[in-house]
Amino acid sequence: MTRHAAAPTVAELSDLIAPHLHLEGPLLPILHALQDAFGHVPEAAMPLITEALNITRAELHGVMSFYHDFRDVPAGRHVVKICRAEACQAVGGTELAEATLARLGVAWHGTTANGAVTIEPVYCLGLCACGPAAMVDDKVIGRLDSVRMDALLAEAGA
After folding, report:
1. Annotated binding site for [2Fe-2S] cluster
2. CA–CA separation, 126 and 12 (whole Å)
3. Does residue 60 contact residue 49 with C-beta atoms inside 8 Å?
């Protein structure tokens, strides 16, 4: 992931959108390209996408909100996804999630004030026998408790 620090220019956005316009169903590849480049889909890209694909802003919003991994604002340097599925809830996942949110002082999809960690819900990581589970960046971790979660958050800089 490239993740530009400065606000993208129209030319940069157009250069990422254009290569996908020949595809059947280009919206998802366009969104992925933008998110890979910037860590989110910049607001400035929205009118370019809707015009290029002849779709409404509502249609674009619908797709972005359906696929939870697309962001319209940058995430923190680390993303912690806490499993919210029933198997993890049954072994303390709800309490772990609530304690983590309270410890960091954020709501779901929130980012810590120092920009280090974004917390997101996820609905199954496939570790049902090892719950509660979470994913820190791309690493899945099972059998979490508050002590292990605190250590992970400290390591991530929260």
Report:
1. 83, 88, 124, 128
2. 37
3. yes
How do residues 30-76 score in pLDDT, each as one tens digit?
999 999 999 899 999 999 999 999 999 999 999 999 987 899 888 99
83-103 burial code (b ≥16 CB/10 A, e <16): bbbebbbebebeebbeebeee
CA distance linking residue 131 with residue 90, whole number of Å: 8
Q: List, as residue ranges, the binding site.
A: 83, 88, 124, 128
- CATH number for the region 78-156 comes to 3.40.30.10
Q: Where are the domains of the chain?
A: 10-66, 78-156
Q: Quick one: tokens of 6?
A: 């400065």
Alpha carbon distance 145, 132 (integer Å): 7
Report the distance separating Cα 125 and Cα 132, nearest Å: 10
